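Annotated sample (chain length 264).
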Amino acid sequence: MECKNCKTYLTEESDYCNSCGGKVIRNRLTLRNLFEHFTETFFNYDNKFFQTFLYLFKNPENVIEGYINGIRKKYADVISYFTLAITISGLQLFILNKFFPDAMDMSVWSTKGAEEIQKQQMSSVQEYQSIIMMFYAPLYALIAKIVFYNIKKFNYTELLVIFLYIQAQISIASGILALILLPFFGISFGIFSMFAIPTMILYSAYCLKRLYQISFSRIVWKTLIFGIVLTIVLIIIFAVIAFIMYSSGGLDTIIEAQKAAQHS
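Output written by the structure step:
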């Protein structure tokens, strides 16, 4: 008998391949064993993803530092976990936009007179959400490298892993909560995000405190500096976007819409 994955020779008693680790499948695929495989993979308490999700709240340093230090079997690896987060975020947006469009109300963040334009901008953000998510982690890692310049515990690549895990955890948790709270409790996406953003900041600070093993007062100070640097970077990015919009005439449309709203 040989492994169906890598063609390595196996004994008849083998349950797993000694070369690639693949499980030996002897039974023909049926709905029953397909369902059993699905439930075992995703709902088993010992499942990597479940354990990763649980311990990123309970002991995030175990998951993140473990991965950095070479422990790759106990928890989900960072790329798989981040990919799962992107999938859940996309599924969340699809379900809410398709079946609960009223829940996607963002009027609480809208500027008077520019609601329609801001809806279009929100639609663009949702369309490119996965790309935006992938942009945040490298940016946060760079800022953390600046903010924690005097603590040489992690290099840039390791910080990138840290923020990929943090971003993934935030996306998975907020995606699941949004699917529960928005459709069934009448909470709009705008209101949800008002509470979600501070929670994200607190969770990120919590993870960094445990990873760097620093005091409460020190992480508060570092978080404030991180926020200031991030604000400066975002102002620069928005300034560039505004310049592009001005060059293309999009900024004039927003200004005219705001003037019309003020005179109405």
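Annotation: The first helix runs from residue 31 to 42.
Annotation: The CA atoms of residues 2 and 9 lie 4 Å apart.
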